[in-house]
Amino acid sequence: MDSHELADPSENATHSPTADGNSPAENPSHSSATDTNSTSDQSKPSEDPSHSSSADAKVPEKRKREPEPAPENSSEPAPPQQHPLWKTTLCSYFRRTGGSCSHGESCRYAHGEEELRQRPDNTWDPTSERAKKMAKIDEKEKETEVEEGSVMMTEALGEGDESSSGLSKCFVNLPMKWSADQLRKFLSEQGILFKSAKKKKGMTVGFVTFEDAAQVKIAVKELDGKSVGNNRTLKVTDVIPRPFEKNNKVGVPAHSTQKAENPSPNSDNSNTINSTDNDEADGDGSLLPNGSILKGRSARDVVTPLAHLSYSEQLEHKKNSLAQILKKLTRNARKACPNGVSLPEWIMKSREIGGLPCKLEGIIESPLVNGYRNKCEFSVGYSLQGKSTVGFLLGNFREGVTAVEEPVDCPNVSRIACKYAAVFQEFLQHSLLPLWNRLNNTGFWRQLTVREGRRPCQIAEVDNPESNISEVLLMVQVCTVGFDDGQVKSELEGLAQAFSVGSTVESPPLPLTALVIQDHTGISNAAPPDAPLRYVFINKGGDRGLEIANDVVEPRIHDHLSNLRFSISPSAFFQVNTLAAEKLYSLAGDWAGLGQDTLLFDVCCGTGTIGLTLAHRVGMVVGIEMNASAVSDAQRNAEINGIKNCRFVCGKAEDVIGSLMKEYLSLPQKQDVTNETLQNKEAEVNSAEENVNSADCGLGTEDNSSGDHENGCTASKSDDDAQMEKLCALESKSTPVQQFKNVVAIVDPPRVGLHPTVIKVLRTQSRLRRLVYISCNPESLVANAIELCTPSVDKADKENNRNNRGWRNMSSAGLARHRAKSMPNSEPFTPIKAMAVDLFPHTPHCELVMLLER
Ligand SMILES: C[S@@+](CC[C@H](N)C(=O)[O-])C[C@H]1O[C@@H](n2cnc3c(N)ncnc32)[C@H](O)[C@@H]1O
Q1: Ligand 1 pocket, residue 5 CB under 6 Å
Q2: So which residues are the catalytic ones?
Q3: What is its EC number (predicted)?
């Protein structure tokens, strides 16, 4: 699962001219509201003491007025653009005197909030209302992060009888890597007597049961507050009964009696924790183990923590946060710059823009602010009230939160996705198979993914976004291990029928294209791309209306980006906000400086969205992607859109990029592109457009299996295979290795960023002059850019660097600094400009694009 999967929305889009026909840079409406105002003045913000701090307010008479920046003609008011800090600080005289300041309009300080400008580093005068509001947002964001020690277990945990007698304790803040054995060993080493101890690797909480009250007392006295592992302070707290067990002495949720009849062989469902009643229990009995009352937390708070702000406030907040992260690039590259090597100009000039490595040009808004997600992953689990629920985890499993709440009021989730979650939830109330238990890794039902596909739509049509959703693919994740095949089949049939009925009772009926069952045994719900799939065909005409098949064509979903049609297999990555993704890719294309003599490397290309949408603007695209289904999708997408100048290579970028670059860049440079090539290319683009138009005919029809291969709607399995064979043959035989004058790379890696080998190849390939980095995680962009942009060191320094140990404890930026020192001698890149694109309204996440050149 990527960072912006809505699932725990922790997951994470393409090119074309934007739908309004303007590139973002050309269209001020894209970024004007939040643009950074930077100027060429050399002053540093830190050199400009504010004259409006609260301390100043107390002793105004002691404060010396700073000289105004000298206007060219002292009789004229200073033009605002003369000083980068012009009007970025509130005028305390003006404030204190209720509106009179002897400097009048020429005062460099802002007379009131309306006049106040943002500082070059994207911050606001800390005494201003805007800054205070931003600080509050930060605080609220922190609050919604799970506090260390909060436990909201709704899973069966303990030992029945003992837990209800108060003999169980919750140990909070344990090292994540500890297993139950390590916890037992630790207890024994401390001389603590106990009956049993439970702990899962990856969690910071454990549960210990004692023989009697005396043992409990000693354990609390000896261990509460003790230091464990890496400077963690252990907390020993009461185990709180799961709320639905407070009135149920047996400790089994009412609905789970049914499950007890059909437990998984490993199932532990009857073991639940009941413990001492706690006086501090609130209405629903949800408590922190340390005794404090768990503040009410909703799925909305967790999934969309910025939803309480207006959209413009959200954008401003994101831009500020990004600016702070970007400054790390300057600081770390400065630190990593070898002795005796002069600092690159961009570092020298960073002072003019508040320490930023390059100008942060603004943030492009999402065309759709609500219900924009085309993919939502809903967890299955118990709510705080013990109800089988399909929705979002209320926090982090690692810290002991397993409660799931319905996706109520989460503004990024579409109405259709919510409806399907509700249908599934209703079904689970009567299912004979158990929910997945995250603590003992048993159970059957795990997760529901709802993927929506849209017909081509103009940004102007976003007013009624739902009307553009023409396909829905549902993927239900289960774990079949230990369950009877017959029973599994019967439950899945029941589920298919429930979805089928659920879709048709709505008016208008909800689209329902395919149901896929993903069988996954792993501990977390993040299944590998090759996890086995079964396809359930939904025949809307029939009674039961389904057929489970393993050996037929894989169901897929179709979406449209920049007038191209994309066929997406169930587990392939596709940006979750299609309309905003168009803007993102369009920006990347504009910044990449493309032309017919350009060879574009699309690194981490997924289903080929970036390369394919830019293909008509370049000579050739080489896409690299490790997910085999996504590569097949990319090849298929090239085919259905009639695009012939793309090659997609399946492999880890770190394994293949070196040889691919060598293959394309080691030949002598090619002459100018001939007229003939250009004409061919034009014909290809026209044929792509025709294909899109004809492909549209398949949209809106429910049954894809009857699609017409010729017009690219769908294909039967044999047609697909033939297509693939043709493509592979084409690639291996006839893709001539041409030479191109201009070589650029657009990289769009997963959250962790690029592999060090990829960075090294990009950095040392001297013909690569321009690199556009797209990132959903600005921290990893910064870390990678440190390596790409820091001047290299000579050999002797590298030797010293090898002796450096302790990398395990380094931050990503620290590690990047360290690696930068081992970078082979090569010309560093320069950060030219950056721009954010908001693909994830209501959440703190955002895509960041940076142009690097040399
Ligand atoms: C953020 S997605 C971007 C996909 C594509 N550019 C798009 O926007 O649709 C990152 C992609 O990188 C792929 N990926 C992850 N690690 C990779 C690696 N080491 N080498 C190549 N591809 C990788 C993932 O499978 C995923 O498709």
Answers
A1: no
A2: 776
A3: 2.1.1.35
The three state secondary structure string of 157-215 is CCCCHHHHCCCEEEEECCCCCCCHHHHHHHHHHCCCCCCEEEECCCCCEEEEECCCHHH
CA-proximal residue: ligand 1, atom 14 (nearest):
604
Question: Residue 340: which region, alpha, beta or left (left: phi > 0; alpha: psi -120 to 50)?
Answer: left
5 belongs to an annotated ligand binding site: no
464's enclosing H/E stretch is none
**Are the C-beta atoms of residues 636 and 646 closer than 8 Å to each other?**
no
* CB 536 near ligand 1, within 6 Å: no
Q: Is 376 in the pocket of ligand 1 (CB under 6 A)?
A: no
Q: Which domains does the chain have, with CATH numbers?
A: 28-56+79-144 (no CATH), 161-293 (3.30.70.330), 375-558 (no CATH)
Query: pLDDT at position 126, please?
Result: 87
Selection from 394, 414, 415 nearest residue 404 by Cα = 394
605 C-beta closer than 6 A to ligand 1: yes
Total-model pTM: 0.70
User: What confidence tens digit (pLDDT) does each residue in 658-696 have?
Assistant: 999 999 987 655 444 443 443 444 444 344 333 333 322
Report the SS3 class of residue 259. helix
Give residue 631 CA to ligand 1 midpoint distance, Å.
10
Ligand 1 centroid distance, CA of 352 (Å): 36
Please tell me the distance from the alpha carbon of residue 612 to that of residue 161, in angstroms, as a whole number: 62
575 labelled as ligand-binding?
yes
CB of 610 closer than 6 angstroms to any ligand 1 atom: yes
Q: Which of 39-43, 319-323, 495-499 has the lowest mean pLDDT?
A: 39-43
**pLDDT digit string, tens, across residues 742-760:** 999 999 999 999 999 999 9
Pick from 734, 588, 562: nearest CA to 641: 562
- Atom nearest to 751 CA in ligand 1: 1
Distance of CA 686 to the CA centre of its chain: 35
CA–centroid distance, 546 to ligand 1, in Å, is 34
Predicted ipTM of the assembly = 0.99
Q: How far is the CA of 754 from the centre of ligand 1 (A)?
A: 10
